[in-house]
Amino acid sequence: MSKLEKTRKEQLIGLVRAHYLFQDQYKESYIWIRDDTQNQVKKIISQDFYTWLGDQYFLACNDYPSFDNIKDASRCIDGRARCGNAETFALSTRCSHEHESIYVDLGQASGRVIQINGFGWSNEIPSKPIFRRFQHQKPLPPVHPLSKNARSYSQSQKGLLAKLKTWIPIKSDGDLLLLLAWVVATIVSKKSKPILCFVGPKGSGKSTSSAIVKNILDPSENERSMIFDEKDFAMSLSQNGIVLLDNLTGLSKKQAHILCMAATSGSFQKRSLYTDEDMKTYKFTGSVILNGIHTLTKQPDLLDRMLTIELTTLLPHERLKEQEIWDDFQMFHSEVLGLIFDKCSQVMKMELGFQAQGSYRLQDFGEIGERVAVAFGFEQMDFVKAYQDKQALQQSDIYEDPLFQVLCEMVSEREEFRVTSTDLLRKVLAHQPDLVESYPYNLNSSQIGRFLNEHHHAFLEKGIRISRQAGRGKGRIIVLSAINGASSASSVENLNDISTSSYLPKDSKDAGDSKKVYMET
Predict the structure, then answer these.
(1) How far does CA 1 lie from the centroid of its chain?
(2) SS3 for 253?
């Protein structure tokens, strides 16, 4: 290294002495840049920091260093952060929970954040690094509290909810309440929250509605994402406050599993570098929005974690041009945020001593939803009924599945038959020849076995018990028994006995009370 290059490297390192070095929860090095013009957090080993460091050198020396000089200096700065007893701060994207307060990043150069607690909310400059930002993120507009006059506030709330319904053609007031609960939970909840899914016919504005909800809290240049694998999707979750998956036609089993992890706070590990064996654990959680013409999955685990909002098709004279919707949204965006922050504060204030009324798959979201109902002037039981009805409706979609219907009909029509899974597929197609063309998923003999495993609860509710027996060689026999005269309640009592390890003897004493279908798989 020449003397000039060494001097430049030292000058570059000297440019960061006025700023604060620290590490995040993953032991990666950051710098907190805080002066009269900016308040930002940048990862040291990143293109964003390289550009900033080069620009600072140019402003100080009226010259631009080589990229090698910048990288060498950045490595030294990174080493100083890692080896110099730097403090550790947990960084978040867009929303962070700290003790009794919640912070929302406005994304502005000033570094200002919204601080929310049970006493209200305020616009603050944080005293420590809280958020990391990415180039695709857009700033939120300046937010001002709504009028404290009770009558004016009530009128403002009604007007803003009416605006929301013009941007998003929600089918019912129950769905409006569920949507409001999800938006507030995106800020308030640090635990699990459901996957929001907009469904509706063509022309119902699913893409626009999804983008509106995302832009309320997390505007971005990159509005839409994709699911390729756990690592890619975890990166999308870490770089966005809300991830939007637009215009889907269906979800594979792997994609459904990834979304379940996102809804209930999963995690995964990866090597720090391809050349070593050190592992880092990354949390896998976040807020996700999907949309499609119909329910996107039949996976029971994901259905339990979804919140489906139905949209209605607007008549031609009711439709607004998309640009008109966005112009109107920009005009009222600040007021909508102010209303949401007010409700977040009220929900946090109600947390102590609040008695939940319902029982939910995602209990934390259910309890937040009940508080949201009260905060917006609904009855607490309005949310309980809307959410429980929605969960029941989502799970009832399996009853409309053509394969489910065909298998139920076969059990009711045939006294007994014993077939291989391949022969069963032939009989299913003989029963309904067009099923293979109309069925939305790949239909084969293995699919039938998986289908029975995943939906044995639904078969049981229809009075069909599923169990298994040992078959020839390595094969297994699946037994479908029609439970004549049994109520769904009595069937559910025996649910724990219906599993892949359950068996019914061929000469069962109950044979006279049930019709059976034997399938070898």
Answers:
(1) 50
(2) helix
